[in-house]
């Protein structure tokens, strides 16, 4: 079973830029930190992407889209499904790249993907 992502998770763009995580709720915790929801991740800034802008490339600056298979329908935080380490998300870089889960932030709470 996949682990829930929390605010201590480490997420990166495919080039090593770090996703800045700012949870929008503080009530539901896993491993002592707020769990993450779709609305916490879509639009989250990415800092440190080393891609140099050219006519055909652009650095990753934010998480553009989170896709189905990334959350648990049965576990909610502030009315929204929580994200799992099965995360399927893409950046706004050119070309777009996958968001990589380096670490879930906790290894206690698990859930089935929705």
Task: Note down, in words, how this protein is organized.
- By secondary structure, the protein is mainly beta.
- A hairpin with a 2-residue loop joins strand 3 (29-30) and strand 4 (33-34).
- The protein contains one helix and ten strands.
- The strands form five sheets. Strands 1-10 form a two-stranded antiparallel ribbon. It has a two-stranded antiparallel sheet with strand order 2-5. Strands 3-4 form a two-stranded antiparallel ribbon.
- It has one helix at residues 38-41, and strands at 10-12, 18-19, 29-30, 33-34, 46-47, 63-66, 71-77, 80-83, 89-91, 100-103.
- The radius of gyration is 14 Å and the shape is elongated.
- The mean pLDDT is 96.
- The N and C termini lie close together (12 Å).
- It has one domain (10-103).
Which tags fit this structure?
single chain, 114 residues, mainly beta, two-stranded antiparallel ribbon, 1 helix
Structure summary:
The protein is mainly beta.
List the helices and strands and how they pair.
Blueprint: E1 10-12, E2 18-19, E3 29-30, E4 33-34, H1 38-41, E5 46-47, E6 63-66, E7 71-77, E8 80-83, E9 89-91, E10 100-103
Antiparallel strand pairs: 1-10, 2-5, 3-4, 6-9, 7-8
Low-confidence blocks of residues: none
**Mean pLDDT, nearest integer?**
96
Termini separation: 12 Å
Radius of gyration: 14 Å
Tally of extended strands?
10
């Amino acid at each position: 079973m996949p682990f829930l992502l929390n605010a201590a998770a480490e997420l990166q763009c495919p080039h090593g830029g770090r996703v800045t995580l700012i949870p929008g709720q503080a009530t539901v915790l896993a491993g002592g930190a707020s769990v993450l929801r779709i609305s916490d991740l879509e639009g989250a800034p990415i800092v440190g992407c080393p891609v140099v802008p050219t006519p055909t490339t652009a650095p990753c600056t934010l998480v553009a889209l989170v896709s189905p298979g990334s959350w648990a329908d049965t576990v909610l935080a502030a009315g929204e499904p929580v994200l799992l380490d099965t995360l399927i998300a893409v950046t706004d870089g050119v070309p777009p790249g996958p968001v990589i889960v380096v670490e879930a932030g906790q290894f206690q709470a698990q859930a089935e993907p929705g």
